[in-house]
Design a protein that fits this description.
The chain is of the alpha+beta class and about 150 residues long. The chain has 3 helices and 4 strands. A two-stranded antiparallel ribbon has the order 1-2. α1 packs antiparallel against α3.
């Protein structure tokens, strides 16, 4: 893998994890939202990632086939809404309570979202480290010619 391919892979992962962290932040911010413009409580959102091969020249494609390795980037394929049912909470004084006194709360588990945020943050940090390592190797390579 050349220098630019490594940067392309890491930058795509940085972008995908930034999207994931933004979705998690939105989920946490709306953990108590019982009424949305679409009607009903907020629904948790999540990103679906996919691996996309990097377009390369014919020689690199032949080499990839010979080594059974292919350089791929990470892309956000789509953003999905969690279809699990809302959590019912007894609060008869709430304006969105049903006749039995239960309020449909968002299907957001704050502890799970925080664990996901830590994972996304660690993945982001790992890719920043990979970019820094590639940059450092490129600088060391340039110093060889001095």
């Amino acid at each position: 893998m050349d220098f630019f391919s490594s940067l392309t892979v890491s930058s795509s992962a940085l972008s995908a994890n930034r999207t994931r962290m933004n979705l998690i932040s939105s989920n946490l911010a709306n953990a108590g939202t019982t009424r949305t413009p679409e009607g009903g409580p907020y629904k948790r959102k999540d990103a679906v990632f996919t691996a996309t091969p990097i377009a390369s020249n014919p020689f690199e494609r032949a080499l990839d086939g010979a080594t059974a390795q292919q350089v791929r980037t990470v892309e956000v394929e789509r953003i999905i809404e969690d279809q699990s049912p809302p959590r019912l909470q007894y609060d008869p004084g709430h304006p969105d309570a049903n006749p039995q006194g239960y309020v449909a709360m968002p299907n957001v588990n704050v502890v799970e979202e925080m664990a996901d945020m830590i994972g996304a943050s660690r993945a982001y940090e790992a890719n920043v480290t990979a970019v820094q390592a590639a940059k450092s190797m490129a600088m060391k390579t340039l110093e060889i010619g001095r």
